[in-house]
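Hi! If you just cloned this repository, the fastest way to understand the data is to look at a raw example. We've pasted two of them here, unedited. The first protein comes first, obviously.
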Amino acid sequence: MLDTILAGGLLHDGTGGDPVRTDIGIEGGRIAAIGDLSEADAETRVDLGGLAVAPGFIDLHTHSDFTLMADGRAQSQVHQGVTTEVIGQCGFSAAPARRPEDAKIMSPGFTEGMVDIDWSSFGEYLDHLDAMPLGVNVAAFVGHGSVHRAVLGDALRPADDEELDRMKALVDESIDGGAYGFSTGLEYWPGSLASPEQITELVSVAARREVLYATHVRNRDVHYDIGFGEAISCARAAGARLQISHIQPKHGAPDWAMEHSIEMVEGAKSHGVDIAYDVIPHDWSHTRVMAIMPQWAQEGGVAAVMARLKDKATREKIKANRRPMWRLVLDDGWHRIVLMQSARNPDLVGLTFAEIGARRGVDPYDAALDLLIEEGDEMAHLMWTSQSFSEDQIRLAIAQPDCAIISDTLALAPEGCLKHHIGSLSGYGWAARFLQHYVRDHGVLTLTEGVRRLTSLPAERLGLRDRGTIREGAWADITVFDAEQIESHCDVEAPRRFATGIAHVLVNGIFSMRDGERTAQDGGRVLRSH
């Protein structure tokens, strides 16, 4: 007697092989049989009527460290077939944290009062998360920025040798606690303080412990080649496996930057460096508004930043920053920058900063800095988005066999405590948009290959041996969808609309979605590397 039989679906098993119409039997949360099960008995039998059947989608790069603690259902992800998330990216992770304030600052989307921070170590954080109902499986990376804060606090300087040793020990301890990898965000503070030599020493811990190193590189516009070159160099010197996060170059890079970046990767791979990369399936880029400020202006916590923004002379010095994170700012491209999240000014969300400045009668740059002040203690979570990526360069990356697809967003819900949160314009529809726009509508990849990019490829990079493919003995993380109807409905005006076309989602054999509707069941669990 099987628990569940999924009958008559067109199986794309995640390996890239040809699809086959077959039945799948599930028992005890795992796939027990694949083949003709018409004579088998099961407690539940679901006729799939020829719908596409795939391994559950794996989101290799998210920032749901806090939002999953506030609401573990992961509604925005489950509704588009995601069964596993990888949090702790770009150097930001909720642990280790020497004090609750550090966990708050390093958890994108954190909102006061939603989560009781009762952890300090990475293992304790995972224990807290593991005690919650989860709609998806969760694997977590430990972030360089969090490790830096745990040792140096807000100090505006690189670590000295003794402090670097303490940071390395924390990375080791976090891997002992279950971290699946180590991440850096070198375009952000405090990652921007670290030298390549220091990053290499920290990455060497990940290499020794055989976990993945993922990096948001130091630059993706004018000096994109230095940014990607540094990532390759650190991984090579440390002997680490490298995942270049959201590899697409930004506004300010030459038109051939993606082609050149791929050439750099392929050249290193030809000499034995283990490298892969991923892209966001959208031409919108998102980040914290604070990221536009120079490093010195972000030191000292909210009160210090607030004082600098309110001082006229200091504000002008901030605006004179010659190396803002977005070159669009230098090029006066405020009509391509949109406010995405604000607790204090929700009525402005969805407007460009050219429109916000005009509405307030101020320069758009001043409008952005004013909004930071008005956000108060939550200024670190003021978010904006810009059209910084090239569609042609995204397609070029997707065409490469080692390119995974990611959301770079948060697990959210349009109701409950997270109803006002947003992580990106594609957060509710990134996987659906990839299958709709790049696979079905434009044929950049076949459906079978598209499924591989969302399943076995990220599983292999992460080191998940029993997820990412549909085979006997693997965990029953399964997504069933209509390949002709799957669709994202997110846009600037309405970014919180669920994707459609997903029929069923099973996480560890439990139906999270059934017949296109979210169930009350949450089958996810925390995955630990050791």
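Ok, and the second one:
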Amino acid sequence: MDKLNLNFFVWFFTLILLMGISQEDAYAQKKLSRKERKAKEKEMLASRLFIEGQKNLMLDDYEKAYFYFIKALEYNEEESAIHFKLSQMMVRAKQFEKALAYGQRALELDPDNKYYHLQIAEIYNNQDKTREAAGVLENLMAKEGNNRQYILDLASLYLKLQDLDKALEALNKAEEYFGVVEQLTAQKQRIYLKKNNLEMAIKEGENLIEAHPGNSRYVLSLVDILFNNNKASQALDLVLSNLEDYPNQPDIKMAAYKLYKGKSEFDKANKYLKEAFANPDLEGDVKAEEFSTILTQSKSTARDQLLDSLSKPMEAIHLNNPNILIALGDWKLQEKALEEAIEYYTNSVKITPSNQKLFQQLIPLMFENQKPFDDIIEIATLATENFPETSEFWFYLGTAQSGNKDNEGAKKSLEEALKLNNELNSQLTLMANSQLGDVLFGLGEKERAFEIYEEVLAQNANNEHILNNYAYFLSLEKKDLEKALKMSQKLVKRFPDNATYLDTHAWVLFQMNRFEEARPFMEKALEKEPHPSGVMFEHYGDIMFKIGEKKIAMDYWNKAKDLEDTSEFLTLKIKNKTYYE
């Protein structure tokens, strides 16, 4: 047979085979009726719509998800999963009646699906139909023969119903599965106490201790129940018996301390307290709280000795605990040991810089005790970083920066303080403006500084800081000297022994060429100031030079040369033995 004929037969038999398959498919198709094909198409369409609904539900597009589920239901009303999903969506929307209808229909279509039962229980619970919810769980448990999975939920529902007997029954069943555990015991004890059955509540606590020997938390829980029900002696016996078996439990010793203290047996109480504090396993926060409580008691030799004794293990073991540091700081503050108090507080805020109250206590204390401005700036910066909206911290920072001669930094901080304060605290506004005026003068913004001084004096005409600095700066500028004189006179009249105010007044008089009048005020300033500054010595030298006492002038200029805050001309004055403006 030639090649052409062979190809023809291959083609022919292939065609026959294909036709046979097509006829077989056609025959199979004919087996489904038109109605059946229609039903199958609807089922497939419902499935695709359901999948789209699920997809949108996962994307949190609830509106689209609802649309697709409803459409799916139109094509297949007998699919339980669609009803279930719609029920869940209605619960989310808090439309519980609709949720219940969809959920019940899902359960009718598939009564063996436990999730549908649980859905109904959840809906009933949301409707405050607690007894119906409990009934659903009971039926499900009976159906599955597995109480373990739902028994705790059932107990919770009975507690909500205040059906204490059934709740106890459920919790006892749960205990059969899970053993004697703290959560179940605590719940049972609460029920027994509600039923005024103290004996059983105590028994439950004893069972828990027996099941978990050496666990001090369970002992303390029972101690609380005993103590709160007027059984302090029984509570103490329990504590002491546990200390015999487990002598190194510091929290049990703390319980012994409190129980003996309640009986006014202070020697025994303090013995257990000291032993507990010496144990590193007792939490630092517990020690800090008890130490602070003792600190509030009336001061006595016994109290002070006890605090001293307790402080030693606190310092040795817990110096990384911020609350321990605060407690020790409070103690030192009460004892007027301010340097030590500041050190404890400083270390505490460095560990936990989220304690706003401690910042508010520490920073003014640092100013009052004249701590280095660098130290204050460090703590005030930490405060502004953690509490950037608190105006007083920006004020403290600006004040310290000003004292440290950082006028640019001080200007920014003080302006931030004023912005945040927004006139809410008038006293803060006055103080911040007072500082800002000095800073602006130091930056050469003299007119603005004087404007701010005027604003402050308009609100408080007796502001000492402004009266002094405004008068002094005007004298340096040789401007409005009569006005400066009135301000400095007002101060020395009110504060005749204040060296700073006397110096300012003398210098205003000097700039007015009233040298003889300036002399006694400057002499009194030097007399009243234990450690005169360089500028005070220089001022006195200038006055003496102007009244012809040049030798005395040279003596005081030389005294000034090794001190701070002198003028740029001091070296020339000494070198050339003459006064320079």
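That's it. A detail worth noticing about the second one: The mean pLDDT is 89.
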